[in-house]
Amino acid sequence: MVISNEMISRYPFFADFNYDQISLLASIAEGVMINTGEYIFHEGDNLCCFFIVIEGAVGVVYEVPQKEGQVPKEDVLFSAIGPGGAFAWSALIPPHKATASTKALSPCWLISFDCSKLIENFETDFEFGYRMLMKVAQISRDRLRDTRIESLVFTSK
């Protein structure tokens, strides 16, 4: 799937970006299809890409043992990300490791952005880097809120 400037511009995440920044994003973007139940990455994995959901829903999950010390794990859903939502922001922040697992809750189309190319461009376009990292900070804030709320529910069971 070819990702165009127009497609990138549709998403609120990129609302404050100028034409050159949108063009750069489109040039390094790839469309990715993920099947229901398929993991995109696991907590602790090295991340190289940042994603926007085009269609479907992605779950941010923590894999916890069903009983202490046992290998079989249960996914605890902390957040669901729908169309227009972004995830894998950790790929932009050292040490570039996943802070949770993600898996498709339905068939998904995603836009994947190569973070090594993004980071290279942050070095020459500081405004671009600033805008991306402000968006990442907002995602991080929202995920922390979701995690806090879910952990309160989970511990009260």
- Give the full name of the CATH homologous superfamily: Jelly Rolls
Shape: globular
Report the order of strands and helices: HHEEEEEEEEHH
Total count of helical runs of at least 4 residues: 4
By secondary-structure content and strand pairing, the structural class works out as alpha+beta
Report helical residue fraction: 25-40%
* CATH-defined fold name: Jelly Rolls
- Largest beta sheet: strand ordering: 1-8-3-6
Mean pLDDT: 90
For the record, the CATH architecture stands as: Sandwich
Major sheet details: 4 strands, antiparallel
Q: Which runs of at least 5 residues are low in confidence (pLDDT < 50)?
A: none
Q: How far is the N terminus from the C terminus?
A: 44 Å
Give the arrangement of secondary structure elements.
Layout: H1 5-9, H2 19-28, E1 29-34, E2 39-41, E3 49-55, E4 58-65, E5 73-81, E6 86-87, E7 101-104, E8 108-114, H3 115-122, H4 126-155
Antiparallel strand pairs: 1-8, 2-7, 3-6, 3-8, 4-5, 4-7
Helix pairs in contact: 3-4
